[in-house]
Amino acid sequence: MKPTSIIALLSGPDQPGLVARVAGWIYERHGNIIHADQHRDSEAEVFFQRVEWVPAGDYEEELAGFRALAEGQLGMNARVALSSDRPKVAIMVSKIDHCFHDIILRFRGGELPGELVAVVSNHEDLADATAAYGLPFYHIPVTRETKAEAEAQQVNILHETGAELVIMARYMQVLSESFLKNVGCPVINIHHSFLPAFAGGKPYHQAYERGVKLIGATAHYATADLDEGPIIAQDVARVTHRHGPADLVRRGRDLEKTVFAQAVRWHLENRILVYHNKTVVFD
Q1: What secondary structure letter does DSSP report for 73?
Q2: 240 — phi, psi (to 5°)?
Q3: b/e per residue, 93-114, with b = 16+ CB within 10 A?
Q4: What CATH number belongs to 6-82?
Q5: Can you give the residue ranges of every domain in the chain?
Q6: Model-level pTM?
Q7: Cβ proximity of 190 and 99 under 8 Å
Q8: Domain 88-281: CATH class, spelled out
Q9: What is the pLDDT of residues 101-114, one digit of tens each?
Q10: Is 227 annotated as catalytic?
Q11: Active site residue: 85, 102, 227, 254, which one?
Q12: How many Å apart are CA 232 and CA 168, to the nearest integer?
């Protein structure tokens, strides 16, 4: 069995000797580094690092000691976790189900290190499918008049389930600033990559009419600025005049599934640092 490791994500002002001091601290305690990567933003002069190691001693003491090193001595922001952690994840979905089914099957297959705890939807279409997967389903209708009340109910449910990550598997509602402020955990969204060129309904049909040669998908953290949160993952596929609207939709959905799953995996594996509305992803 693979031993449990400690994962640390560091960010802060660049300074000489950071890599050596982190590695030296782990070495002095007889830890075994199994992964280390770093990045320096030369314009912002910010240093980022992800380091993963198997400690020789007590895990809790090691976690506390490393935080003291990173924050107290090095002046860095630090986030530490255990590789054995399985964060609780809630899905928000409407009617479109390709990302919904794909992400659930990936969790059930053990691909994603987390625990699904709830499905929240503004429609009842996927209630039976959710029950078949053995997950609790919460139907909360959302209208323009009831949006604030509905979001308050959603936030309460997410708090009650202990959700540590919310993933929008094509949830076709705009989350308000109040929701994002009160939910208390990150939210990951997935959508096509045509924005802002082909906003609104039937984007793939719009793209076909325009004769695009590339289609894509984008996964990002949701923020109060619609579809402008820090981008986590993207991918594209080439298309030609031979591909009709149905072909574009099919290819687009395939991209959305894989990009969505990749973003969720990177988050759950503690591979992402967010800064200045951007991300550093240690893939």
Answers
A1: I
A2: -130, -175
A3: bbeebbbbebbbebbeeeebbb
A4: 3.30.70.260
A5: 6-82, 88-281
A6: 0.95
A7: yes
A8: alpha beta
A9: 999 999 999 999 99
A10: yes
A11: 227
A12: 14
